[in-house]
Amino acid sequence: MNVQTIMMASTVVIAFATVIYATLTYFLLREQRREKEKPRIQEIVDVVICPLIKKLEEQKGSFKKGDFKWTQNGFYYLRHKLEPPHGAEMLIYEEFKKVFPEIDNEIIKYNAELMKQKETLDAFADEIVLLPDYQKRVSELFEKYKKERKTSDTFFESNTKNLEYILEDIVNNKHELNSSNAYYDFWNLYKEDLLKFREREEIMGSRSEVEIGTKNLLALSERILKRLMDIMNRYRRKFGIVYKDIKKYPPVS
After folding, report:
1. Nearest Cα to 74, choosing from 168, 197, 214?
2. How many domains does the chain have?
3. How far is CA 46 from CA 4, 112, 152, 223, 243, in A?
4. Which domain holds residue 112?
5. Closest by alpha carbon to 80, among 105, 101, 63?
6. Residue 145 falls within a domain, yes or no?
7. What local confidence, expressed as pLDDT, does residue 83 receive?
8. What's the CA gap between 233 and 169, in Å, rounded?
9. For residue 81, is it within any domain?
């Protein structure tokens, strides 16, 4: 083997070794960078992404039942609104927003749709109250319940506060109440009668608006959920991110 051949072979070996070294260095640096970024990504997942997923999933379940947790004072809106974390965790959300501004925009749209739905539900509730026989029928059922149960409980007096509680359950299309609810037994007895007010022809226009708003919110929630789950799955593959409730939230198709 002559000198020239030996030199060419050496050059090839050196070049190959250089490529191997560069490749190993690249993977090592990438792994180091990934390990360095992992705590920050874990914070974003724990503080922002997973809480949003959990809240949206819970709300979807309620909305599909027609239950918006509507109340006379609008408290449901505060419960459902997708708000960023408070305090120091706000900085983590700001970082998330910089990376995913499109999701933040979707959240803004979602909250605006919630506010619109609140106004629609307010109008729906007003129309139920204005039905000529609404208050009379609820009062009759209160009296009937008191006589049958031989109770003088003030929860079943025909006053504004008690009538409002029943209105909330009608607007929210409640088919079951928590067993600790003061109206639990009353509602089980008379819910079919009371929920018929939702079916009245006089309020079908308002009810249709409620259903349209529900569809819009469900579509927005599905879109946000899909984006969040895509991010979650990408982080899981790239960084090995683990979340204790991840199995509850499989990828959205």
Report:
1. 168
2. 1
3. 62, 25, 50, 20, 7
4. 43-131+200-248
5. 63
6. no
7. 84
8. 39
9. yes
